[in-house]
Design a protein that fits this description.
Keywords: Membrane, Transmembrane, Transmembrane helix. The chain crosses the membrane at residues 16-34, 87-104, 111-132, 144-164. It comes from Marinomonas rhodophyticola. Helix content is 58%, strand content 15%. The protein contains 22 helices and 16 strands. It starts with a helix and ends with a helix. By secondary structure, the chain is an alpha/beta fold. The longest helix is centred in the N-terminal third of the chain and has 51 residues, at 143-193. It has helices at residues 5-33, 36-58, 63-83, 94-105, 108-131, 143-193, 203-213, 231-237, 239-255, 280-295, 323-339, 352-369, 409-419, 422-442, 455-459, 463-474, 494-506, 523-528, 538-541, 550-568, 581-589, 606-620; strands spanning 220-227, 262-267, 270-276, 298-300, 303-305, 309-316, 345-347, 375-384, 390-401, 405-407, 449-452, 481-486, 510-516, 533-536, 572-576, 594-596. The relative contact order is 0.05. It folds into three domains: 5-171; 203-348, 2-Layer Sandwich (Alpha-Beta Plaits); 359-620, TIM Barrel (Alpha-Beta Barrel).
């Protein structure tokens, strides 16, 4: 293990205290064999070491104590050399030990000062001997020399052992750290190339494998798989169940591969496979086998699940050579598969690219449409069926694009809903309709206006605030505004929708259920929802004029039943899409209250609407 800086400093301090103790004991032992002068030198050194030992205990990080100890040893050695046998004394070898410790534990200045002192001291001794100022030493061996030599050799050995131990420990720690680093790097490389949940390749790894595979295969199929309705599993049982299901599916898909083929988890519940291409028939069989494999029953913690998938396919090199580009094209094909009913495989068609490009350009233009005054309103009058007088108008949004010309609402409204722009368009329509209604009221035309609401306006939870703010800004009384909601919207977040509708109802604003009969037609929400009007969808109304076959009779009964139901619940009925007199007569016979359609008036602009108001006023008088 590697020591932290504080731990390492503590360890070095302990070693240093051991060295002081060894030198202290060596000085005491050496003094028993030494002569009077050497004995005095050694005992004085022992006393000095006691003082340094005490200083190290009191101030553990005192570098002065370390430097003082080395200087004490240096002076001790120098004194023994002078007293013993000059530079020929075996004590000279201790200088090396002092310099090693100075290099390891002291500052550069302390090391240099000790080194210079030792060099000058030894040089001066030799110079004095050469000049005859010092009696030439005569090497001699006695018991004291033997003891001193062995003591200093033991000290040197012990010091070298401590130093070597630290270095061995350091080298082992470095080796261990290196091994851990190698292991970490290996794990990082594994994580970088594999999906942590399923163990399949990730995008980066799959892209690299694809590049290698293109070098040996002339044609490949990139298969993009997206699971159908997988989110409800996570929502109902938690992500734990979803993760287990993904692991099971990953293993199933892996078994569908032939040698050399690629599989990766693209993200979430999406997988990408790369197949070797043989022929169209063989590929179709493999895609069908994939769908069947995915759809097999699976058991997750004693719960049975069955999951389907939508598949999109793009070919290399026919549709592209870049892996990410091919995945994008296969993703487009997969999306088309979902739109066509799911649980199917579709091959990418190049002509889709122009459609996507045009769609993107139209989205960009739609973002700027309101700011460029390209969105405007038309109004379709509603007529009382008994008197054929106008009793209301419906505000409808239209788009006259500078780039695309007139764009049908059937095109730009779904596009706005898909991109989230419908909220801004809905607020614009509501604001403009309220201001226009206020204008014709001031001109003496006592006619309310109805405005369609989008799912985005309801889901934001801010609808009451927006409506109240717009009414206050326009000065329009609440009872002149009717809001139309499709019945499918009423099935979403019932509590949140009920709360908003109740607040708006309390202000005197009425509601109508639009396109009735095309959704759930649930009597439960009719009983709880404070609607004033049911609008019978034009798809039923237009079929009233068809030949008297069995289907038409059923349709007639359906429309009649809706009108009777509405009257029972105290609701008024409006039939949409009335385009001929025969249909109008049938609805009158059914006692439908109001109608709207091209027979009586197509959607018209504000100026034309005022003219029509005036004409009806003249006719009625």
């Amino acid at each position: 293990m590697l020591y932290k800086p504080a731990e390492l400093a503590q360890r070095q301090r302990q070693h240093f205290l051991k060295v002081i103790s060894v030198f202290f004991v060596a000085s005491i032992i050496g003094s028993t064999f030494a002569g009077p002068v050497a004995q005095t030198i050694l005992l004085c050194s022992a006393v000095g070491m006691c003082a340094i030992y005490w200083l190290m205990i009191v101030r553990p990080n005192n570098k002065i104590a370390v430097a003082g100890f080395l200087w004490l040893i240096t002076l001790q050695i120098s004194a023994l050399i002078m007293n013993n046998n000059a530079v020929y004394s075996p004590v000279v070898m201790c200088y090396a030990i002092v310099l090693v410790y100075a290099a390891l534990f002291c500052s550069t200045s302390t090391f240099l000062s000790l080194a210079i002192f030792i060099i000058l001291y030894c040089s001066l001794l030799l110079l004095f001997i050469l000049l005859g100022h010092w009696s030439p030493p005569s090497p001699k061996v006695n018991k004291a020399s033997i003891v001193a030599t062995n003591l200093f050799l033991l000290i040197a050995s012990f010091s070298a052992w401590l130093i070597a131990k630290d270095f061995r420990s350091l080298l082992y720690d470095l080796w261990s750290e290196n091994q851990a680093s190698r292991k970490s790097q290996k794990e990082i490389r594994r994580i970088a190339t594999l999906d942590p949940l399923t163990g399949l390749s990730n995008r980066v790894s799959a892209e690299q494998a694809f590049s290698k595979l293109t070098l040996v295969e002339e044609k490949l199929s990139v298969v993009f798989i997206d699971l159908d309705n997988f989110k409800p599993i996570n929502d109902a049982y938690g992500h734990h169940y979803g993760d287990i299901a993904l692991k099971i599916l990953a293993e199933r898909l892996r078994k569908c591969l032939e040698p050399g083929e690629i599989i990766c988890r693209f993200g979430g519940d999406e997988f990408v496979l790369v197949f070797k291409y043989a022929n169209a028939h063989h590929s179709t069989l493999r895609y069908q086998a994939l769908l069947e494999t995915i759809a097999e029953d699976m058991e997750v913690e004693l719960r049975d699940f069955r999951i389907s998938a939508s598949i999109g396919v793009a070919h290399f090199p026919e549709h592209g050579t870049n892996f990410n580009e091919l995945c994008r094209l296969a993703d487009q094909a997969m999306y088309r598969s979902k739109l066509s009913g799911r649980n199917a495989a579709l091959l990418y068609q190049p002509e889709w690219q122009d459609e996507h490009r045009k769609k993107l350009e139209m989205i960009q233009a739609l973002r700027l449409a309101i700011a460029h005054n390209e969105i405007f309103l038309v109004y379709q009058p509603k007529y009382d069926l008994a008197s054929l007088t106008i009793n209301g108008v419906e505000a409808l949004a239209r788009w006259q694009s500078k780039e695309f010309g007139f764009v049908s609402p059937a095109v730009f409204i779904p596009l706005a809903e898909e991109t989230g722009l419908i909220d801004n368009i809905g607020l614009f329509v509501l604001r403009q309709a309220c201001h226009d209604c206020k204008k014709w009221l001031e001109l003496g035309y006592d006619i309310p206006v109805s405005v369609n609401l989008s799912a985005a306006q309801l889901s934001s939870g801010m609808l009451p605030e927006h409506v109240f703010s717009i009414l206050a800004d326009s000065g329009l009384a609440p009872h002149y505004l009717e809001l139309e909601i499709t019945e499918s919207l009423l099935m979403q977040d019932q509590q949140g929708i009920d709360s908003q509708i109740s607040r708006i109802n309390d202000k005197g604003i009425s509601f109508a259920i639009d396109d009735f009969g095309t959704g759930y037609s649930n009597l439960h929400y009719l009983s709880r929802f404070k609607a004033a009007t049911l609008k019978i969808d034009q798809s039923f109304v237009r079929q009233l004029n068809e030949s008297s076959d069995n289907y038409s009779l059923k349709n007639y009964s359906l429309v009649k039943g809706v009108i009777v139901l509405a009257k029972t619940l105290g609701l008024t009925t409006i039939a949409e899409g009335v385009e001929d007199q025969y249909t109008l007569n049938i609805l009158r016979a059914m006692k439908c209250e109001s109608v709207q359609g091209y027979l009586l008036s197509k959607p018209i602009n504000f100026e034309e609407l005022l003219i029509k108001f005036k004409q009806h006023e003249v006719e009625n008088h």
